[in-house]
Amino acid sequence: MTSPTSPTSPTSPFAELDAADPLAHHRDAYVGAETPLVYFDGNSLGRPLRATAARMAAFVEQEWGGRLIRGWDESWFELPLTVGDRLAQVALGAPAGTVAVGDSTTVLLYKLLRAGVALRPGRREVVVDTDNFPTDRYVAEGVARELGLELRWVETDPTTGITPEQVAAVLGPQTAVVLLSHVAYRSAWIADVAGITALAHEAGAVVLWDLSHSAGSVPVELEAWDVDLATGCTYKYLGGGPGAPAYGYVAERHLAALEQPITGWMGHADPFLMGPGHTPDPGIRRLLSGTPPILGMQPLVHALELLGEVGIAAVREKSVALTTFAVELADQLLAPHGVALASPREAGRRGGHVTLTHPAMREVTARLWRRDVIPDYRDPHGLRLGLAPLSTSFAEVEAGLHAVAEVLAEVTV
After folding, report:
1. Backbone phi, then psi, for 112, in 5-degree steps?
2. What keywords sit in the KW lines (predicted)?
3. Domain shared by 323 and 193, yes or no
4. pLDDT tens string for the chain (413 positions)?
């Protein structure tokens, strides 16, 4: 097996792009970025920061080992909210006191979908699109069975994404919640959050947005877009690590009325009262249920510091440059093999990843992994290139796409 050209090689014909990149030096902050491995899966799991290892060791030795149970009084009890506030500030365009970190995306989708339906009593329909991430669809189906609701499915082209016109066509007096993704997990289509949210509000519904494939890569403005509810994972572009806790957003106007279905002690107005009955906290803490994953939040602290230092605008600029470069190279190297672009060609409509389709892509992906070129595969026939702006170089993209071309040539002879 041949190895891809080292993405750090000064002889790379695209080294000048990295030399001109104002964010290139941040790549050195990530574990493994110095190796020849080509990582095209930053939209599934981001590389870890080198600082995370030291932080985890210090936490075990000093906070956990040194402070023990005192850690709850000193910082841990508030950590889901303090990390939530930082996340809201640097990545979500949301005010303090509206984001809490904890649970998985699936659990928070369930909580927030149930809460959204409760905000619109008497309404019996939930709008969801056929190309939404599987978990979103599965949770919607489960809630519909549980509450006797009807799902209004929007048929969505997997190479593009949901549009305001499609949503408008299914909205009506029975619509309680519209559940959609900001960036489509297959095509990277960026939905018109503000436009769709406004349409839903005109119909009297609330909107729950999944930000898993956008937060940390694409600018998000939850308050400016008048979003009601949102959730997303932190292990993709936000760099929280495998299984890192998700986050939930609730607009200030809904906090006092929010009824989430998994009422636990950490969401109580006075968790240590431990009395009969559940009195929800008046703020975003009411979204919490059980003991929050304090260990799981540690990598997020450094990752959010870095994102705040760089700024989401600069991250987006680099992301657009990387995906545009990948599209141009795919046109040159892969189109002759019959590969088609299954992401928006217009950069303003495209999130942080690029999907390329060919009937042989499942086998191509398996062979690439054996060569230390790591994209991922999504049906139908899609090779996804997840390009994390702070850890991916232009030379890495060039090396990886040349490897894709080589493997395609092998499997299509």
Report:
1. -75, -30
2. Aminotransferase, Hydrolase, Pyridine nucleotide biosynthesis, Pyridoxal phosphate, Transferase
3. no
4. 334 444 444 455 677 899 999 999 999 999 999 999 999 999 999 999 999 999 999 999 999 999 999 999 999 999 999 999 999 999 999 999 999 999 999 999 999 999 999 999 999 999 999 999 999 999 999 999 999 999 999 999 988 899 999 999 999 999 999 999 999 999 999 999 999 999 999 999 999 999 999 999 999 999 999 999 999 999 999 999 999 999 999 999 999 999 999 999 999 999 988 889 999 999 999 999 999 999 999 999 999 999 999 999 999 999 999 999 999 999 999 999 999 999 999 999 999 999 999 999 999 999 999 999 999 999 999 999 999 999 999 999 999 999 999 999 999 87
- Give 36's contacts (C-beta < 8 A, 6+ positions apart): 3, 4, 5, 6, 7, 372, 399
Domain that holds residue 85: 75-308
Q: How many domains in the chain?
A: 2
Cis bond upstream, residue 380 (ω within 30): yes
Domain edge (last residue) among 279, 308, 337? 308
SS3 410: helix
Do residues 296 and 318 both lie within one domain? Answer: no
CATH number, position 376? 3.90.1150.10
User: Hey, which residues are catalytic here?
Assistant: 133, 210, 235-236, 384
**Cβ neighbours, 10 Å, residue 298:** 22
Q: Give yes or no for a contact between 168 and 199, defined as CB atoms under 8 angstroms apart.
A: yes
| Among 236, 268, 231, 223, residue whose Cα is nearest residue 249 | 231
Cα–Cα distance, 96 to 81 (Å, whole number):
9
Q: Confirm if 305 and 317 have CB atoms less than 8 A apart.
A: no
